[in-house]
Amino acid sequence: MKRVRREEDDETGMILVNVLMFVAIAASLVLLLISHEQLALDRGLRMREASRALAIVRGGELSARVALRRDAERQREQADHGREAWARLSESGAPIEGGRFDLAIADAQGRFNINMVRTGAAAPIVLFRNIAANAGATPEQTVRLIELVVATGPVTDLRPLRMAGVDPAVAARLERLVTALPGETAINLNAADPMLLTILFGDSGVAERLATVRERQGYLTQRDLEAERVTMPRGAGFASDTFWVRTRATIGDTSQQEAALIRRRLTGDGEYDAVPVERWRGAAIPPDAPQFAAPH
């Protein structure tokens, strides 16, 4: 009788162990299903946030395009500078439903357009040689840069030019003075770096005084050049057709960011338009795109 009872106890123990194993397996499956469902929900939420953020990013770009078009329609003098209405569109951490929004807008023609060397004209090549020398590039490096742009251009980004063997520190200084824009563009004196003004006028004193005038009144005019007894440098002017617009929207934990080059042009109907000619997203955004202002 004791042996039978022991066998029954052993069978009961085995059944209990099996039941516990089945319960453990079932619990694991339930947890796996819950985890998979949670991941799917999180993925769906992130996709919705990303779609909404991208729509806000494109909306910010559109508002900048409208402002640039209106500026072209209203301006009486052919001049563009940082105190116009379009330049005041910049936003830093602006609150939106579920997140925040940033916008940076800048004149893209405050630097020398490296694609100008592809024209074969002497003036832009001489100017680029001067700019490169002031940035610390050797004559050999400058020649390689020109050859690279002529052979592979028009370039849309300065980063590949570092493959020409230019020292990173030199490349960083060069990127303050040079950009890569589509078509032929002039340097806008109202947006040019003081160092670039010195190179253009060949006189640091003149450049410093013009920069001071520009800082005080917000822009330069022909009268300001005449007061310094200098003429407009070749390849320069007071107006621009190309602008940077960089936008970022953050919804929850999801962020979308784009940069676009906007070209302002006169249509066949005699109306002004502002259209994107290049776009970059995320990590592909070039280094010469404007940075977002620090949050207040």
TrEMBL record:
Keywords: Membrane, Transmembrane, Transmembrane helix. GO terms for biological process: protein secretion. One of its GO terms (cellular component) is membrane. The chain crosses the membrane at residues 12-34. The keyword Coiled coil does not apply. It comes from the Bacteria. This is General secretion pathway protein GspK. It comes from Stakelama tenebrarum. The lineage of its organism: Bacteria, Pseudomonadati, Pseudomonadota, Alphaproteobacteria, Sphingomonadales.
